[in-house]
Predict the structure.
Amino acid sequence: MKRVFSGVQPTGNIHIGNYLGALKQFVELQDDHQCIYCIVDMHAITVPQDPKALKEHILDVAALYLAVGIDPEKSIVFVQSDVPGHAELSWVLTCSSYTGELSRMTQFKDKSKNKESAPTGLFTYPVLMAADILLYDTDVVPVGNDQKQHIELCRDLATRVNGKYPGTFVVPDGRFLKEGARIMALDDPSKKMSKSAENIHSRISLLDEPSKIKKSIMKATTDSDGVIRLDTENKPGISNLLNIYSVLSETPVADLEKKYEGKGYGDFKKDLVEVTVDALTPIRERFEEIRHSEELMTILRDGAEKADEIARKTMKRVKENFGLGL
Ligand code: AQP
């Protein structure tokens, strides 16, 4: 069976962008792959975090993993900082990377924009992400397409190390969806939907109450020509809403365009509210059942043990190939 690895940062509640771009794939892959899903808390501290809130968010994301359908009987679920191999391998890979390639990463450029000096962790974030993936001899990495550049860097690092020390790493492939691969912010469709954006109406979180979902969708930015048609370049707002509607209701965009021919944005948005509430209610209910359970803690502890076992084997090989340790 091919091995799958991916992760989500506990930087806030998972939104429909994370869900449609990444988590839906996590669930689909579990039946015929060996899946390892991580809550990447060490990535979260690349920007300032409140320790108490971070702990809560780690458990929130873990519970949401299970609530969307990740099955701990089939997949390994754990918290990144519980497995020391991530930090260890990250340092080894840092020594195989170049400042030039890291400074070309668009996520780093976006997050450090207008700052005189940026945290080093933000700069080396993609190296830690490469370590996460390579630590488990991963074949496939399901992610949203905002991560394409980071996956490419991971492949470059693996290939570079293998060139020097053959057989060290498995070179992974990214897995990106066509639909839902990039969900944009509701208030500004030129930016991707993000957990940490200031405006809560820029996103729909999986735990949002129906009233909040309604408010965010009804306020969503559209345009003035009133035609419901997919045209990402000229009509980014309505195109983003069409995409969300299409993926959540599993209806092709062309069918939606036909259904809403001659109708206004108000009708369309009202229906989208209903579709979204219907899709998210069972997730929210399941989340409430498991979030404060002992079962959740046991799953994370067992997951960390299983992940650590695989990680140790990889680190043994890496250290041998690099000539590290005794
Ligand atoms: N808007 C998006 N559309 C589709 N996929 C997305 N992903 C993130 N945003 C979108 C995918 O979700 C997975 C988890 O993301 P992450 O938590 O590791 O980090 P991120 O990409 O930085 O997500 P956010 O929501 O924007 O978080 P913050 O605000 O903390 O930076 C990834 O597979 C990602 O591709």
In short: The mean pLDDT is 96. The longest strand covers residues 3-8. The pocket of adenosine-5'-tetraphosphate is lined by residues 8-9, 11, 17-18, 21-22, 143-144, 146-147, 181-183, 192-196 (CB under 6 Å). Strands lie at 3-8, 34-39, 75-79, 140-142, 173-175.
